[in-house]
Model the fold of this input.
Amino acid sequence: MPDLIPETSEWWIARLWAQLDERTKRIKLYDDYYEGHQRLEFTTDQARETFAETFGGVALNFCELVIDAVEERLGIRGFRVSEGKEYDPEAAEIWRKNDMDAQSSMVHTEALCNEEGYLIVWVDEDRMTPVITAETPFEVIVERSGKSRLERLAAMKRWLDDERYWRVTLYLPHEIRRFRSRDPVRKNGTIMATHLRRDGYWEPWVTEGEEWPIPNPLGVVPVVPITNRPRLGYRFGGTSELKAAVPIQDIINKTVFDGLVASEFVAYPQRYMVGVSVPKDPITDQPIQPFKAGANRIWFVEKGDATSINPAIGQFPQADLMPYVARTEAHINQLAAITKTPKHYLVEASTGGSNLSSETVKALEAPLVAKTRRRQGVFGVGWAEVMAIALRLKAGGKYEPADADRIEVDWKDPETRTEAQHVDALVKLKTLGVPEEQLQRDYGYTEEQISRFRLMDDAEPVAPSAINEPVTSAILDTPFA
Done:
């Protein structure tokens, strides 16, 4: 961008803005498919023009399930400091105060669906406690260094406020700059590239009592991406789980569409009358269309020469729609194989999915479990840095990469087990010497519950004789039996 001085605020905004626009165009398709707003592909223009208004909104939305099948297994139980392998109480407090059980679920969904999700870590000026917010890739973008994809040069968040002014927060390693557009934008929210390059388009956005720019003592950009399926090469972000699913979803939608059109016309016997006068519509007084199909309609062949056409009444049998069902199931099988989503997640219980044994379910879910564990490994890098930055903000001082190296993310078990199987496995682990507190954690108890269990164990036992002693009311001074 020759007309802007490199590394200036305007230069960074114009650069990151263009990258964000480019990615938004790409991931909008995946976001629409996840929400069920799907296109009608592989059909002729004539079919779309004729039937899209009636059947165009019908879609079997498997894309949402492909994402949720992984996301629901990506639960975080806590964070450990590597040296002691103990859960960090400060990390647990930060997690709880920021409602991260809910926020982590949202950022995982964004990453799985839209390539990346983001977490911004900063400090609450009033309480001076770390604040973590989950952010959408439609508003946030990060630029990585050419040296390492883990090193971030800058990040930007943009949004349109209620008065239709653009707001921009630019995150740099040593400071944070906030801006507002000089003028409100048009109704559709677009902004001309020439405006981004124009001097004076961005005005500092200053909050009363706050420095501008805001110093960043961390020395690192406090915007951490959670990247799904990253590729080698610093310019590459993530890859959506729906990249391979969308074409198959289009085929399924097309097959369902064809089946619905067929059911509208040939899913029932079509009656006909030959050699008769075509009746007129009682309302319009116009001849009824002779070959318009319908469950309550009759096809008429108008009589001509009475000697050549004998009046007759009959019907055509209904068409077999099972080929459409078989084709749909075949495409569902393809979707299950490519996305590693268990088939019994995608198919109705009428196909036998509800009668599967626990061993069969485990075998069918093995690819999904393996896929989830890989996501845990990749996402864990980002989560470790998020918590390390939060702990550093609370302690004060400059952030060091070694801070994240000491943090270990403890994920919930992604495997599906019955209660009996789970308890039986924990009992067997106890015989191997696994501490009881770890077994409680593996069972699913929270750190607060485990702490209460510890207090219960440490409490002095009540003497048996004291259990049946009467209790005296301080108000009535009379014993209660």
